[in-house]
Write a structure and sequence with these properties.
about 25% strand; 3 domains; about 475 residues; single chain; RibonucZ/Hydroxyglut_hydro; seven-stranded mixed β-sheet; Nonspecific Lipid-transfer Protein, Chain A
Length: about 475
Amino acid sequence: MEFKILSHAGLLVRNKPGKSLICDPWLVGSSYWRSWWNYPPVSKDLINSLQPDFIYLTHIHWDHFHGDSLKKFRPDIPIIIPKGNYTRMKDDLFYLGYTNIIELKHGERFQIAEQFYITSYQFWMFLDSALLIECDGVKLLNLNDSKHMGLTLKQIVRKHKPIDFVFRSHSSANERLSYQIVDEPNAPVDDLERYIKEFAQTAKATKARFAIPFASNHCHLHKDSFHFNQYIQHPLLVEDYFKQHQIQSPQVKVMVSGDSWCSDSGFTISDKDWFTNRSALLAEYLQQQKDSLEKFYAQENKTEIDKQVVVAYFEQFTATLPYFIRRYFKKVHFTYVLSAGETTKYVYQINVHQGRVVELPPDTPLDHATYPIQIHTTAFIFLRGIEFRIFSHMCIGKRVFYKVTASQKKYMEALNLVFNAYEYDLLPLRRIFTWRSVESWSMRWREVVLYMQLAKDKLVYGKLDLDKYLR
């Protein structure tokens, strides 16, 4: 068998007769409104060589579920997805024109070909999944972005040991770095080192032979997010961590787009160094994509918003919230500051408790005593969040900036959780009690136990100690 790294989170696995599976094929262009780009870029020759028999999508985030890349493949190709409590992945694939969708339940095994099987393992309230791949006697655990730990990770390891390769993310893909605490400017908003530490802990817990830093090989090229490149934890930093902590097993291997492993010949890894001189290479990459970026800037600058669209969205959103959530936000106002070009064009003050939207003049003095929770982004991104019901994606792209006071930060974090719950069919609450949802969670009882353990830790010790669940 052979596996090949395709991209940021793209993986190709092929058996000896030539049957192939691709996971999370983001191959072309950018993601999250020109913010995320594959790093290193994926060669056109590699893209054109791909003729998969099956595709597996771990979850719905655009750097994994990438519409433009999926269009490279025929509409009747079998696309396999995790079967969680919601149907959005399937619905969106049908919307894109794909007709052969296969849903796998948690722990369900599926045969790709002779001696070629996959098993899907779900995790997290807002559905993510890992994929255990068995091909010609070799076992690969593609954890990707999923944060399996405790009983959920033990389930996978016990059932499938020994595991040969484990793939996992190792850098930030959340909104934490997008926070600015205006009255505590030196307050830390994220612990960057913990991502690599958790990669190492998880890799060791799987007892795999090799650990591949994966699903974090991207960069930022948009002018609003380019500065976030300095915070990306790239694979050489993972390799250094293993050396500093004298971790011999599993053996870490740095692999980027085009690199591969074959059961007959072992590793084939390019000798090009993409990380030591990353700043110069990023500047070159930025220049290569200049025309694409400029066209997008012009598109963003022309965005117009109809206030009634905003009003209709938040009225509908608030109507799905149970009383206890609405009450939590009763005295809280969220101020969206939306730019189009170099100037502020729209300012909306939103009260989630009532579902009320007030439009303020664009030149409103936005002092933080009066407006303690400000969300700065573009009118284009805000409108896309409404049109496609993807507010939960906005913060991932590193193009939304939260300027909040320390005392009000918790409300912004809570709102982002509620957006996720709304868009992942956990709201209204009755959706939790559908047969599909009950079936999914009953199969994932180990995860429910993990959440109960974490809740106990928070109540008893006042903090979450994830280390003990990653051993």
